[in-house]
Specification:
This protein has 487 residues and is of the alpha+beta class. Helix content is 36%, strand content 28%. The strands form 7 sheets. An 11-stranded mixed beta sheet has the order 3-9-10-16-13-12-11-24-27-23-22, sandwiched between helices. A 5-stranded mixed beta sheet has the order 18-17-19-20-21, sandwiched between helices. The protein has a 3-stranded antiparallel beta sheet with strand order 4-8-5. A hairpin with a 2-residue loop joins strand 6 and strand 7. Helix 2 crosses helix 6. The longest helix has 26 residues. It is globular, with a radius of gyration of 26 Å. The two termini are 26 Å apart.
């Protein structure tokens, strides 16, 4: 176990915080509830961002940027939307400060005519904008994504998982027909699931949310849900079919192919820095962070081992040649030639930071034309011939990526349970994991189960299932749904 990391089995919450801090990912800021994402943590976020951005652009989406501030009146136009976010909004009321005997104070004479909301999400400001962009069916579809920060005033915060300000992407699309909008919602959900599984090595469940778990203002919300190592679920991404709610609220009409005016159909969708939390909690261990190679800022770190200046010159020359070869092979690599830290200290640092592969090279290795290779996921070491190094590293990086997904998939499968009655339900929910159980489809039963067990319906599977009776009410149920305790 790493020196400053609590054992996962002893205190999972502290283990998570210890990894975030010791792996140099983030820290709490001077502003309550907000975080500083440190360079190494931000480098991982940039990898996530870059890969998702490619996926969006391949499917015709383009990036734009909309204001941070939203007029308060915009929120009153969509009743469900304002109800969903009212308690989380930060409000700007004044635009100037002034000096006084008490120090810097708000200038009471500089009060805004209309208060501004710091965006908790951007549907309202975007649909006010789309009204200017859309007149005809020829202007559709609009496929826009925004990478931005948002503010939701949280009382209980946790680094990456729940902070008052966080980074995310939010897609907002406008369509000619209901069918096109639903197809878009499904497309984005598939992109999220593919990204989580292929790049993050995180297996997910796909489905739709219940009515009371939907996004505020949506007709339907689709989601991807992941299972963390403590048995709790994490909502990893959502895609919302908004119907015509926002186009009606902001009077966004278009002239259809028959020349008649019609309200636009729309979607919105997003993932956030919460994915960083999912990445940490899915793969990491008591030694620290474990990163899938596809998202690691450094896929390989090179640590030279030497005694004295003469040794260093020989080892350094050998290492620099390897560094160039790896860079030429498009392998992300860091060469740590700092003489201020010993090799053992560096080994520990990169294990805590989750670097997938470590190369340690000393004088004896040079004489034998070998390199010692260490892989983070299994702690295995092997000696590789210099002329086979690139091939071996690429092979091992692929193996690590596959191993992490297989390992987390096995965990998901072993911790997904089918239950027949409420006693079984309570037993499995308390032990952690996903529980597949029949539900009668009513909000009343959903809320009762939540009150008794603290478990929520994470998603309703898209696939049809066998009918049965609800585990709590005994009423008819069309199929089982996934329950879990969640973050």
């Amino acid at each position: 176990m790493a020196k400053n990391i609590t054992k996962k089995s002893e205190n999972y919450s502290q283990w998570y915080n210890d990894i975030v801090l010791n792996a140099d990912l983030a820290e709490n800021s001077a502003v309550r509830g907000c975080m500083v994402i440190k360079p190494y943590g931000f480098a991982i976020w940039e990898r996530l961002q870059a890969e998702l951005d490619k996926m969006f652009k391949r499917t015709g989406h383009m990036n734009a940027y909309f204001p941070l501030f939203i007029p308060k009146s915009f929120f009153s136009k969509e009743a469900n939307h304002v109800d969903g976010f009212a308690k989380e909004c930060a409000v700007v009321t004044h635009y100037r400060l002034k000096n006084s005997e008490k120090g810097i104070v708000v200038d009471e004479e500089a009060k805004l005519e209309e208060e501004l909301i710091v965006r908790p999400t951007s549907e309202t400001i975007i649909w006010d904008t789309y009204k200017k962009w859309i007149q005809s069916y020829r202007d559709l579809p609009i496929l826009v994504n925004q990478w931005a920060n948002v503010v939701r005033w949280e009382m209980r915060t946790r680094l990456f998982l729940r902070t008052s300000e966080f980074l995310w992407q939010e897609g907002h699309t406008a369509h000619e027909t209901k069918e096109e909008a639903i197809k878009e919602t499904e497309l984005i959900l598939d992109i999220y699931a593919n990204f989580l599984e292929k790049f993050m090595a995180v297996p997910v469940l796909k489905g739709r949310k219940t009515e009371c778990e939907r996004f505020a203002g949506a007709l339907d919300t689709y989601c991807v849900e992941a299972l963390m190592q403590d048995g709790k679920a994490l909502q990893a991404g959502t895609s919302h079919f908004l119907g015509q709610n926002f186009s009606k609220a902001f009077d966004v009409k278009f002239s259809n192919r028959e020349g008649k005016l019609e309200y636009v159909w729309s979607t919105s969708w997003g993932v956030s820095t919460r994915l960083m939390g999912a990445l940490i909690m899915t793969h990491s261990d008591d030694q620290g962070l474990v990163l899938p190679p596809k998202l690691a800022p450094y896929q390989v770190v090179i640590v030279p081992i030497y005694k004295g200046r003469d040794d260093f010159e020989k080892v350094n020359k050998f290492c620099l040649n390897i560094l160039k070869d790896l860079q030429d092979a498009d392998i992300r690599v860091k060469y740590d030639d700092r003489d201020s830290h010993k090799p053992g200290w560096k080994f520990n640092e990169y294990e805590v930071k989750g670097v997938p592969v470590r190369l340690s090279i000393g004088k004896r290795d040079i004489e034998q034309n070998n390199v010692e290779l260490f892989r983070r996921d299994t702690f295995d070491k092997k000696t590789v011939e210099r002329n086979e190094l690139i091939y071996s590293i690429n092979k091992i990086l692929n193996e690590i990526q596959e191993n992490l997904f297989t390992r987390s998939s096995d965990f998901l499968n072993k911790n997904t349970f089918i239950v027949k009655n409420f006693d079984e339900f309570k037993d499995k929910i308390n032990s952690g994991g996903f529980v597949l159980a029949h539900w009668d489809g009513t909000e009343e039963t959903e809320m009762k189960i939540k009150k008794i067990t603290k478990a929520t319906i994470r998603c309703i599977p898209f696939e049809s299932g066998e009918s049965g009776t609800c585990v709590l009410s005994g009423k008819p149920s069309s199929k089982r749904v996934f329950f879990a305790k969640a973050y």
